[in-house]
Write a structure and sequence with these properties.
The chain is an alpha/beta fold. The chain has three domains: about 1-10 and about 210-300, 4-hydroxy-3-methylbut-2-enyl diphosphate reductase, catalytic domain (Cobalt-precorrin-4 Transmethylase, domain 1, 3-Layer(aba) Sandwich), CATH 3.40.1010; about 15-100, Rossmann fold, CATH 3.40.50.11270; about 105-165 and about 170-205, 4-hydroxy-3-methylbut-2-enyl diphosphate reductase, catalytic domain (Cobalt-precorrin-4 Transmethylase, domain 1). Helices cover about 45% and strands about 15% of the residues. The strands form three sheets. The protein has a four-stranded parallel sheet with strand order 1-12-10-11, with helices on both faces. Strands 3-2-4-5 form a four-stranded parallel sheet, sandwiched between helices. α4 packs parallel to α5 (about 130-135) and α9 (about 210-220) packs across α10. The two termini are about 15 Å apart. Bound molecules: iron/sulfur cluster. The site of iron/sulfur cluster has 15 residues, from α1, α4 and α8.
């Protein structure tokens, strides 16, 4: 049996930057506690690894309990709304901003559009940390939608409108929403209404949609695929969906204990891949686990 790890999988550029920053802060903090506000990334195995080095994950309501002024509070890759930075400042906390630069750029673009009077529409998940951050830069006044139906129901076509996307959503669905909204805007222009502008900014992250073709090829070249990711990873869900379309024998696992040996019956090629927040070291452990478990099984059979 040939087991291979997808060479385009592993941390994306933004997650590498975030994790490097966390490692650096942990290394330079001898006595003081290092906190992170919410999960640093959406991967429980990587969180465990960093927590073993001293990182402590806290919630927003726990911020006020930090008493040691030397403690550091890291802002995770998904970013935070301005209200969080203000709160930390009011509490006199020492903040280290590890927001992914692409997420930061998205926040900046949205703020600029909002300040210029655009109605802001975001294709994304309203409870996702990145969208909470985005919503904060436009005073909670953006319209968050997940489908064409929702867009047509919620968007006010009498206003100039700018459509953005959360970085980790699916490209095809974004384009469908864009097309539907463009059609509506045209109707209003023909009718002489006030809506003079509709702009759609594809702010999907290239480190997610740029993997789609390679992922499809990798999935089709294997008999089964193990897709390793945190269950709450947004890009994990999108990439898994693409993988499963290319190869229905794709299994989503968060932990290697979920591997079922029955999946490997009669199989020659096994592929291992994951989300942009799946560490390379964990995919290697998954590979080792399959190799050792299957060879032990063979010894027992013989
Ligand atoms: S997927 Fe893209 S936006 Fe998200 S952390 Fe990675 S580089 Fe940044």
């Amino acid at each position: 049996m040939l087991i291979s790890i997808d060479d385009s999988a592993g941390f994306c550029w933004g997650v590498v930057k975030t994790i490097d920053k966390v490692e650096e802060v942990l290394q330079n903090s001898t006595d003081e506690q290092v906190y992170v506000l919410g999960d640093i990334i959406h991967n429980p195995r990587e969180i465990e690894r960093l927590e073993a080095k001293g990182l402590k994950t806290i919630t927003h309501s726990e911020l006020k309990n930090i008493t040691n002024e030397k403690s550091k509070v890291i802002i995770r890759a998904h970013g935070e709304p301005p209200s969080t930075f203000k709160l930390a400042d009011d509490l006199g906390l020492n903040v280290v901003d590890a927001t992914c630069p692409l997420v930061q750029a998205l926040q900046n673009r949205i703020k600029k559009a909002y300040d210029s009077g655009y109605q802001i529409v975001v294709y994304g998940k309203k409870d996702h940390a990145e969208v909470i951050g985005i919503s904060g830069v436009c005073n909670g006044e953006c319209i968050v939608i997940k489908s064409v139906e929702e867009a047509l129901e919620k968007v006010d076509f009498s206003r100039k409108t700018m459509l953005f996307s959360q970085t980790t959503m699916e490209k095809q669905a974004f384009n469908e929403i864009k097309n539907a909204l463009e059609g509506k805007v045209k109707d209003f222009i023909d009718g002489g209404d006030v809506n003079e502008v509709f702009i759609a900014k594809n702010t999907l992250c290239k480190y997610v949609y740029g993997r789609e073709d390679k992922l499809q090829e990798f999935a089709s070249n294997n008999d089964i695929v193990l897709f390793v990711a945190g269950r709450n990873s947004s890009n994990g869900k999108s990439l898994y969906h693409i993988c499963r379309q290319a190869n229905p024998n794709t299994y989503f696992i968060e932990d290697m204990e979920e591997i079922n040996l029955d999946w490997f019956d009669g199989i020659e090629r096994v592929g291992i891949t994951g989300a942009t927040s799946t560490p390379q070291w964990y995919m290697e452990k998954v590979k080792e686990k399959i190799e050792t478990t299957l060879s032990k099984e063979l010894v027992e059979i013989n």
